[in-house]
Write a structure and sequence with these properties.
single chain, 7 helices, 38% strand, 2,3-Dihydroxybiphenyl 1,2-Dioxygenase, domain 1
Amino acid sequence: MRLDHLSFAAGPDGLAATTARLAEQLGVTFVDGGVHPRFGTRNAILPLAHGHYVEVVEVLDHPASDKAPFGQAVRARSEAGGGWLGWVVAVDDIKPVEQRIGRHAVPGNRHRPDGYNLQWQQIGVRGTTADPQLPFVVSWESPADEHPSRDGQPQAELLALEIAGSPERVTGWLGEPALDALEEIAVEWVAPNGLPGIQAARLRTPSGEVRL
């Protein structure tokens, strides 16, 4: 289990305005990620060092967004003003996670602007929606060289996360491997003062070290 990416929900002004604002703050350029047809969402990607990335995601006016848990989660966070949606870990074999959570993974895909259909399995979005300190899990089916962190040269590095919640709660959800996935970065667990989950990420960027 390893940290894969962070999800950031676009604000009410939409994906383009949100990514423009973040790009200026970070001194980076986001890449058009394309559309998630199963979820009724689309995203933009910021490749990071060490195989990580940040996605900024918005919900589309599409029936899938009303049915898919991920689409529902994005819509709710955007309507609340946007911001950090959650953190995501990757595994090579998703079956043990299915057994622990007690449900089956669902297929995910994203049609990139270049025509490539990126594919994976994911599980745990409902848990993240109920308690945003909890990660959800992906297992990539597309080759490693198509991973979103390879969508251009890494433009920043994730240094640290501030998460409102408790490591004990995460351990109860996915076990110690979920915490092990965060070992390569600094993590500050803070008491929730409102919504639990990611409060901030600290990144090394062309603009210097930025707390987002």
